[in-house]
Amino acid sequence: MSQLPASFLALPKAELHVHLEGSLEPATVVELAARHGVTVSEAEVAARYQYADFRGFLDAFKWVTSFLRTPQDYALAAERLFAQLRAQNVVYAEVTLSVGVMLWRKLEASAIFDAVDEAARRALPHGLRVAWVVDCVRQFGPGAAMDVARHAAQWTKRGVVALGMGGDELALPAADFRAVYDFARAAGLHSLVHAGEIGGPQAVRDAVEILGAERIGHGIAAVADDAVMAVLIERGVALEVCPTSNLRTGALAGLLAKQDARIEEHPARHLHERGVTITLSTDDPPMFGCTLAGEYAAALQMGFSVADLVRVARNGFACAFLPDEEKTRVVATFDESTR
Q1: Residue 331's pLDDT is what?
Q2: What are the strands, taking DSSP E only, across 103-152?
Q3: Which sequence spans correspond to the domains of the chain?
Q4: In the predicted model, is pLDDT for residue 150 greater than 70?
Q5: Nearest to 275 by CA among 317, 221, 314, 233
Q6: 68, 135, 56: which is closest to 105 by C-alpha?
Q7: Where are the alpha helices (DSSP H) in 168-218?
C-alpha cells in the first residue's frame, strides 16, 4: 500500500461515518461475551468478520451486537472506539448509534445513551469531540423508525445531531420514511441516509429528494448517473465514502458488475473530480480490517494526490453537523494546521 507522508498523518482528522456497534475489536467481543456467559475466542470472532457479501456482513453485525446488552457494555465499546480514534489524530467524530437495534432487542435505550454520552464527555478533555448520529434500520419499517426518531429528538441537547438510516437499503422505498424524516427535521435533527451502497443511483436521488438527506452514507452508485451527481453538487450533499467497506461487502463489485473488484477501481476519485463533495471514513473498522489512516492510504492507490486528500480531510470538518460558528472555527483550525 502507498505510504502517506508524516505531515499528512499529523493533520487533525474528522470521522463522520463509523458505527459504534461495528467498532468492536475481537478482543473486546471476547470480553463482552464472557460477561454474558458465552465463551468465544478471538479467532472465532475474526472468522465471523470474514464474509463474501453484504448479507454476510449484516449477519456478522447482528451476531456481534448480540453481546452488547447493558449500558456498561456500550460504554466499554465507546471507550475503546474513542481510544482508537485518538490514536489516529481524530479530533471530531460523529458516531452512529443503532438505537433501532437496541429497541428491537428491547434494551433500555435511554440508559445506554446516558452511558455512552458520559464516555463522550470523558473523551473531550483528551482532545476528541464526539457527536452522535442515531440510526434506524430500514428493514424494520417506518413505525420502528419513528420510535427511533422520537428517542433522537429527546437527545438533541446532548450531542445527537442527526437521524440516520442504515440496514438493507433494498428492503423498503424511501417514500415510506418521509414522515419520519419530516418529524426529525422539525425536532432540529440533520438528515442522513445510507443509500447507493448496494442500491442504484435512484436510491441516492430518493434519499436527497424524498427524505432531504444532507449527507449520504456511501452513495457510490451516484457515479453511474450524471444527473444524480449534478443533484448532489447543486444541493451540496456530501458522500461519506468508505472504500474498504465497499470492497469487503461486495458493494464495489456489484457497482462494477464484476465478480471481484480491486480498490484501485473504486469511484471515489471520479466523484471527487466531478465536483461531488466526499469524505473518507471507516464504517465498521475491525469488521473490515481498516483504519482511517488506511483509508487515506488506499485513496492514494485510487489515484488521489496528497493535495487531494488534504481537501478531502478538510471536507470532514466542513461537512460536519456542527453549529455554523463552531464549524467555521474547526475548519480554520484545520487550515492553520496545513500551513
Answers
A1: 97
A2: 129-137
A3: 6-337
A4: yes
A5: 233
A6: 68
A7: 178-186, 201-209
Catalytically annotated residue among 15, 25, 94, 197: 197
Average pLDDT in the 37-65 region? 91
Secondary structure (3-state) at 280: strand
pLDDT band at 202 (very low <50, low <70, confident <90, very high): very high
Q: Which three cell numbers stand for residue 122?
A: 470523558
So what's the pLDDT on residue 53? 84
Q: What is the mean pLDDT of the segment spanning 111-133?
A: 97
How far apart CA 280 and CA 266 sit, in angstroms, is 12
Taking the C-alpha atoms of residue 21 and residue 66, their distance in angstroms, rounded to an integer, is: 10
76: number of Cβ within 10 Å: 20
How distant, in Å, are the alpha carbons of 97, 104, 142, 189, 207 from that of 150? 14, 15, 12, 11, 20
- CATH homologous superfamily, domain 6-337: Metal-dependent hydrolases (3.20.20.140)
Q: Which residues pair with 165 in a beta bridge?
A: 136
Residue 130: in which H helix or E strand, if any?
Answer: strand 129-137
Phi, psi of 267 (to 5 degrees): -80, 5
Give the span between the Cα atoms of 96 and 119, in whole angstroms: 14
Of all residues in the chain, the percent with pLDDT exceeding 90 is 95
Please give the Cα distance from 43 to 313 (Å, whole number). 34
Cell of residue 201, nine digits: 443511483
197 in active site? yes
CB contact at 8 A, 124 and 134: no
- How many other CB atoms are there within 10 angstroms of residue 195's CB atom? 30
The cell numbers describing 53, all together, are: 457479501
Q: Is the pLDDT of residue 88 over 70?
A: yes
Cell numbers 444532507 correspond to 214
pTM beyond 0.90, yes or no: yes
What is the three-class DSSP state of 22? helix
- Tens digits of residue pLDDT in 10-38: 999 999 999 999 999 999 999 999 999 99
CA–CA separation, 288 and 63 (whole Å): 15
| pLDDT attached to residue 58 | 85
**pLDDT by residue (tens digit) across 269-303?**
999 999 999 999 999 999 999 999 999 999 999 99
